[in-house]
Structure formats: structure tokens, C-alpha cells
């Protein structure tokens, strides 16, 4: 039985549903032998992704010295420190994360993420786990803006297939993408076509859709083979729910990724481990817990499933001025 409901819920009902969903997530991972872990929320390193910005955190030590750190956007790199110690098995975490400048119906400055890593797996294993977790929490059907999306299976499109079918371009032809999108650089052209053509088309499919195998420019921390990143994103009714990779393993790759963002993104502690030996072969996935709640309740805004969301508190403070 799923937890899907076609009605509004009170605050207390929402809190009970969130608790039950967390219990289902824990049951899913504990039943597969994963260990629940804790990592720091306030960290000295900036997120290396140019498309994600940290919320800054200022504090002082007992001598009054001032430090400017960051609230984490993901527990990724501290979880990878734990993975580095492992030879088998998996770890997971249900954790609050923070991303600056992100307030929309699908984004909140503060939200809850489920993140997990498994030694010995790759991104295709992560896809199976992701779909299993969505079914465990949401049930047989998801509700997206009044549409029921069946969760008895899923479709897979490579990025190349999706862009050919829905945007009419060869995504690996950089010049063609720029020309069709009327953009001067490839990255802008890619995301314009993704948002304006590909994602709306995926949203019309009445099954979950995995979009896989990205051009290397959009590899993030995924392993790249022959110019293709072993990465997936899961869409349900056109809404992105999860992002997963076959993870990078070596010191040089991570150092390059960190340095591209700047000095504050260079995670010295993690790099010091990779100097000793490679990260074990592993897969990792990040999934939006609050977006799962949206699918269960049919909510059109993420702020309707987060008690006292940043947006709601901003509205409260502005109304009190």
C-alpha cells in the first residue's frame, strides 16, 4: 500500500506522513544492509558545482576568532570519506541541506535529501535502487498536478535519444546545439533545450523516466567513458526526483573539479585520502525527500510539504513589517 492521498493535510498530518516516509526510507535501506551515517552540516568547503551555491555560515571560536564556512548543499564528500574506508556494503543519510538562491515551487533554500552510496555498484544499479525506493515511499501511483503516474515500471532515454526525439538535435554536435538553441555557448544551449523541449516532453510520459548518459561537460562527479558520463536523472511527470552516478575515484579528477570552482571548494581532507589510494568502485545517488512527499500528496509546491519552509517564513516576516 502506498501513502498517496488526494486531499489537503493539516500540519500534524503532514508531520506524521513525513515521519512515516522517513521510516519507509530507513526500512528500505536497512533491509539491504546499508548503514545510516551522520556527517557535518556546517563545512569549511564550498560546493564545487558552478550551478549550486552554498548558504554561508559565520561563527567564532572561544577566543573570538571569526570563521566563514558553509552550510552543506549535500553530504557527498564527507560520505565519500566514509566510503573510502569501506570494502563492501552501503551507507545512506536522510539530511537537511541548504542551497542559496533556490526558491521556486520545486526548490527551497532548506530541504531534505536522501543520499546513498554502495561499494561495487554502478549507475545502473543506482537506477534500480532509486525506482525501488520511490515505489516503497510513494506506492503504486504518483500524483503530479492531478495526473496519476503509474509506478509499475519505467522508461529509459539516453540524453542523445531524448535530444534527437524531442529537440531535433544531435546533443554531441556542440555547434548544432548552439545554433538550434540560439545561444553562444554549448552549456547554455544544452540547458535551454533541456528545459524548453526535453523536460516538457518527458513530463507527458505516464511512467517514470530515467535520462542517462550525459555529455562529459555535464558529468559532475560521474565517471566518463568515451565522452559519455555514467550519470542518470529520474523524472516523474516531468519533475526531477533524483540524480545518480558511477562515481569518480581518483585524486587528479577530484582536484581538477575542485579547482575549477576555486580555492574555497578544494576539499583537502578528502583529497589527502585519495592520495593514499583510489575511492572504491561505487555508485551514489541523491534524491529529494520533499519531492517524494509532493508525489504522495499531489502537492503543487514544495513549500506545502515542508513545515515552516524558508519561503513561508520570508512571507511571514515581510507581512509583519
From TrEMBL:
Residues 15-307 form the Aminoacyl-transfer RNA synthetases class-II family profile domain. This is Lysyl-tRNA synthetase, class 2. Pfam families: tRNA-synt_2. PANTHER family: ELONGATION FACTOR P--(R)-BETA-LYSINE LIGASE, LYSYL-TRNA SYNTHETASE. The keyword Transcription regulation does not apply. Keywords: ATP-binding, Ligase, Nucleotide-binding.
Amino acid at each position: 500500500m502506498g501513502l498517496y492521498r488526494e486531499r489537503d493535510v493539516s500540519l500534524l498530518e503532514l508531520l506524521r506522513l513525513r515521519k512515516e516516509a522517513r521510516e519507509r526510507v530507513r526500512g528500505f535501506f536497512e533491509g539491504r544492509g546499508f548503514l545510516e551515517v551522520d556527517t557535518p552540516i556546517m563545512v569549511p568547503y564550498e560546493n564545487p558545482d558552478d550551478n549550486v551555491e552554498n548558504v554561508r555560515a559565520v561563527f567564532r571560536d572561544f577566543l573570538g576568532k571569526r570563521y566563514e564556512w558553509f552550510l552543506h548543499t549535500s553530504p557527498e564528500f564527507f560520505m565519500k570519506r566514509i566510503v573510502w574506508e569501506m570494502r563492501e556494503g552501503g551507507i545512506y543519510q536522510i539530511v537537511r541541506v541548504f542551497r542559496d538562491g533556490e526558491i521556486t515551487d520545486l526548490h527551497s533554500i532548506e530541504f531534505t535529501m536522501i543520499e546513498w552510496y554502495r561499494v561495487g555498484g554502478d549507475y545502473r544499479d543506482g537506477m534500480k535502487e532509486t525506482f525501488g525506493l520511490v515505489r516503497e515511499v510513494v506506492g503504486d501511483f504518483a500524483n503530479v498536478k492531478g495526473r496519476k503516474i503509474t509506478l509499475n515500471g519505467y522508461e529509459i532515454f539516453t540524453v542523445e535519444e531524448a535530444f534527437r526525439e524531442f529537440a531535433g538535435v544531435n546533443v554531441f554536435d556542440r555547434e548544432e546545439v548552439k545554433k538550434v538553441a540560439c545561444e553562444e555557448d554549448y552549456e547554455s544551449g544544452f540547458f535551454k533545450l533541456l528545459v524548453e523541449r526535453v523536460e516538457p516532453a518527458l513530463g507527458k510520459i505516464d511512467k517514470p523516466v530515467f535520462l542517462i548518459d550525459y555529455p562529459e561537460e555535464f558529468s559532475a562527479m560521474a565517471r566518463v567513458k568515451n565522452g559519455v558520463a555514467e550519470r542518470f536523472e529520474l523524472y516523474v511527470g516531468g519533475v526531477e526526483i533524483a540524480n545518480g552516478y558511477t562515481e569518480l575515484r581518483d585524486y587528479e579528477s577530484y582536484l581538477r573539479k575542485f579547482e575549477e570552482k576555486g580555492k574555497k571548494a578544494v576539499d583537502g581532507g578528502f583529497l589527502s585520502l585519495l592520495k593514499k589510494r583510489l575511492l572504491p568502485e561505487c555508485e551514489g545517488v541523491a534524491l529529494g525527500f520533499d519531492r517524494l512527499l509532493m508525489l504522495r500528496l499531489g502537492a503543487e509546491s514544495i513549500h506545502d510539504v515542508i513545515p515552516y519552509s524558508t519561503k513561508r517564513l520570508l512571507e511571514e516576516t515581510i507581512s509583519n513589517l
